[in-house]
Amino acid sequence: MDSTATTATDDPKQNLNQVTDSIHRRWASSTRSTSPSLPSMNTLVLELDNMTKLAENCNIQVPMEVLNYNPDEFTGDVLNSCIAKNQITKGTTDAFKSLRRHLLEELEQAFPDEVEAYREICATSAAVSCI
């Protein structure tokens, strides 16, 4: 028998988490084998019974929005949010590259020798390209 079935701690939420983990492990092991053993199934039933008893003492409020939220919609929303943030970051990066290029052009007109030396230093080092 699994130790989580007989473990008694003061925190019902922790107990419920342990039982849920145990049930998941039992379910995973029973689906891997072609014929689940009777002791394994009995332990699974005991864990489910234990979870029911622990749930009575555990008052968890779940908002209806969470229950009504479609996981596919959530995944789509997260991906769309990531794409939007990525586009903002790319725009910012492109703007800085453009500014850098523009500043180098202006500096080259004012200080051609210094910009040439700067480009030579960049070419010989492992630094970011000097554009």
Average pLDDT over all residues: 81
The helical percent reads over 70%
Number of domains: 2
User: Helix- and strand-based class?
Assistant: mainly alpha
Spatial gap, N to C terminus: 68 Å
Largest sheet report: none
Question: In percent, how much strand structure appears in the residues?
Answer: under 5%
Q: What oligomeric state is this?
A: single chain
> What spatial form do the alpha-carbon principal axes imply?
elongated
Compact overview of the structure:
The chain has 131 residues and is mostly helical. It has helices at residues 3-6, 12-32, 38-56, 64-68, 71-110, 112-124. The longest helix has 40 residues, at 71-110.
Keywords:
131 residues; mainly alpha; 6 helices; elongated; disordered N terminus; Mediator of RNA polymerase II transcription subunit 10; Mediator_Med10; nucleus; transcription; transcription regulation
Fold and architecture overview:
Its main location: nucleus. By secondary structure, the protein is mostly helical. It folds into two domains: 1-60; 64-131. The protein is built from six helices and no strands. It has helices at residues 3-6, 12-32, 38-56, 64-68, 71-110, 112-124. Helix 2 packs antiparallel against helix 3 (38-56). The radius of gyration is 31 Å and the shape is elongated. Mean pLDDT is 81; it is low at 1-8.
